[in-house]
Write a structure and sequence with these properties.
Helices cover about 15% and strands about 0% of the residues. By secondary structure, the chain is largely without helices or strands.
Length: about 120
């Protein structure tokens, strides 16, 4: 009888805690992609090293770029609207007036997080 009550109490506690939702914040750690091939169909480039790569004109809108190294990457004319760039290294990223920045404004994307103007 006592074990039954303990089991019921544990179950009730776990259900109560799960009702609070996930405690994982948007800036928490990410799972690095195991496929770093840049293509229109690969939307998960998290943690990839794309430093210095030519990403001109690519559609990266809403892609997962968290933790990606984009240092010196050429994003001229690329669409990064809504991309997830938390923790990405953005030093020296190259953008121009035809780049669609994360905040849906045209570039150059000079503000932190690849935001434009």
């Amino acid at each position: 009888m006592k074990l039954w009550r303990i089991g019921l109490a544990v179950l009730a506690c776990s259900l109560a805690l799960s009702a609070c939702g996930s405690n994982q914040s948007p800036s928490s750690t990410y799972v690095a992609s195991d496929n770093c091939k840049v293509s229109e169909s690969n939307v998960d480039l998290a943690g990839c090293n794309l430093a210095g790569r030519d990403l001109t004109g690519l559609d990266l809108a809403s892609d997962n770029l968290r933790g990606t190294d984009l240092s010196g990457a050429d994003l001229d004319g690329a669409d990064v609207q809504g991309a997830h760039v938390q923790g990405a290294v953005l030093n020296g990223v190259i953008t121009n007036a035809s780049t669609v920045c994360v905040n849906a404004r045209y570039g150059p994307c000079t503000r932190p997080g690849l935001d434009g103007r």
